[in-house]
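dude i think i finally got it to work??
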Amino acid sequence: MPVLLSPPVADALLPVPGVRLGVTEAAIRKLNRKDLTLIELAPGTRVAGVFTQNRFCAAPVQVCRTHLTGGKVRALVINTGVANAGTGEPGLATARATCEAVAGLLGIQANQVLPFSTGVILEPLPVDKLIAGLPAARDALKSDGWYEACHGIMTTDTVPKAASRQVKIGGKTVTLTGMSKGAGMIKPNMATMLGFLATDADVAQPLLDALVKEAADVSFNSITVDGDTSTNDSFILMATGQAGNETLSDGLSADYAAFRAAVLELSIWLAQAIVRDGEGATKFITLQIEGGRSRDECRKVGYAIGHSPLVKTAFFASDPNLGRILAAIGYAGIDDLDVSGIRVWLGSSTEEVLVAEKGGRAASYREEAGARVMKEAEITVRVDLARGDQASTLWSCDFSYDYVKINADYRS
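look at this
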């Protein structure tokens, strides 16, 4: 079960003017499963995206990068079950054929289509099944299709992940609705996750391009479940421009600041939802690293703690074997780290316990206090490196028996 994460309510997912979504069953990997989603965008929609940094990136990622440079994106197509990664030139041909089929159905150009795939790597995508399912997805297109779509992009997710926000921009109400999927093979620099966030705000392309990178950096690039960076990760930001606001083109304006805040907040929520639904997760862990000389070294420490199987299994067991956290800090890669100045706290919503200081166990620390915190579903690990004024916050989860079971049986 996900950690304090409930499925979205259909009525709470607000339509975004200029966006229609359709979902169908194409039997791409399994029968009786919604596995094909089509998103149609109104003419004039501006689109920006960021993708995995895995060098073995999937065919749809390669095609998306090419098509985004041409601008004027009009449609997205998403399949689950098969990732179309590690498929070489045939995989690229399949991704391109998918775009051509969508273009033919919608009366647009193939380079105006962005394809996305998620699922098993190193298996060919059954493009004939995908193409055969497209007419049903087109016929299902509707503006209030977010609820069906967030279900249709799931793989090992146990719950769909989607939410909406509204904000006033220049006297106009701007709507933002987003959805994400992912539960395993999650690590910074994107992961086996897909994220889609649409808004009806009118935003200049340069600001949109910068904002999607900033939003990914503080959200999807700040989570880790298991330390594995996937081949298919994608985060797409779409702005249809139909809210009627004056075009946001000044990155220093108050209107842009309000819009930016809403995008960042929703992106962080979607990213955290992935961690809360991490495969087999029972604990949601916030890693708050401060006192660094740079943000990068703070992130190194956070990742070292968040990736450590020993730390993660201790959290699952509610075992305050907290020397494992110190060990992770020590191997994080800061060569001149003075451990005598480091302080480490373990916290919950009701208390914070000083665990370590002056190079060892804090004199005030009692194991029963650590055990009490570790029994909570949400836990914060706060580390002060005592080296500077930079900080970074990351999110992770524990490792349970179910993580092994889910991944051992993934292809069954």
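The mean pLDDT is 93.
im so relieved honestly
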